[in-house]
Amino acid sequence: MGKFWGRAVCLFFGLGIFSFVPLMLRVFGAAFIVGMMPRTPASALILIFMLNVFLLSYLGLEPIARSAQAFAIPIVLAFLVVVFGSIPPLDLLRLKPWFADGLLQILRGATFVAPYFGEGAIVLYLIPALQNKEGIWKTISWSGVLVCLAFASLTFASIGTLTATWTASVPYPGLRLARNVSIGRFFHRFEPLFLSMWYLSVYLKTSLLLFLAAQLLAHVFNQKNYRLLLGILLAVAFPLAFLPKDLLEVFALQFGFARLMSFVIGFVLPGVLLFFTFRGGKTQ
Questions:
Q1: What is the pTM of this model?
Q2: CB of 237 within 8 A of CB of 25?
Q3: Buried-most residue among 146, 154, 208, 264 (CB within 10 A)?
């Protein structure tokens, strides 16, 4: 493709991945305000979050991967507790309107949402850095299936417990579900612990996005030390996080622009690059 087009593609990837960072900052601030801290300014929460993200991104890829490995099981368990804790008040008849148009419509909707949560661009970028590449696609496939099952189960539990209209009308229905979880007389209001686990997942994802964006842009601008760009990118991301006026605009960006960008940089652009790779021969 040549040096110019190579840098152009790298720049597009870098800016595309960076575009998720302001959105993740705003989602984090909004979730904590809705869930636990309604009187705390969003700017204060986001600044604290940015400091944590900067420190982890500064350490590099291996600490991010080790942290994700350490917290993966607690995060999954938190989702499972919410799902299974919602079974007692679950009413399966509330799921009937969801299947009114058939399973095809549900699968089509899931296809549009999957690229945003699948993070195909992140996976493609990380593959060359892995030492054991033999079982990588099997691991990626199982991880994707587990993530889809987790979100699908949480959605089913919310609709079956709180109705589809209520689920669609409130922000973060998972937090409302966690608030209703009660096991015996010793386990009540699971919401703070669930929010803590959710914070870890958003924290790790945002740190990885910032790290990848800094790495790609450092390559474009011939900077050997990507850490110089971390602070600059966060300084740009902070005002961008407040461009959406309310939660409705945040969700519109999350499942509009961000979903489209995920599809482009995770599937469309890699497919085009794969075509040029085979066209240029194996040596290139």
A1: 0.80
A2: yes
A3: 208
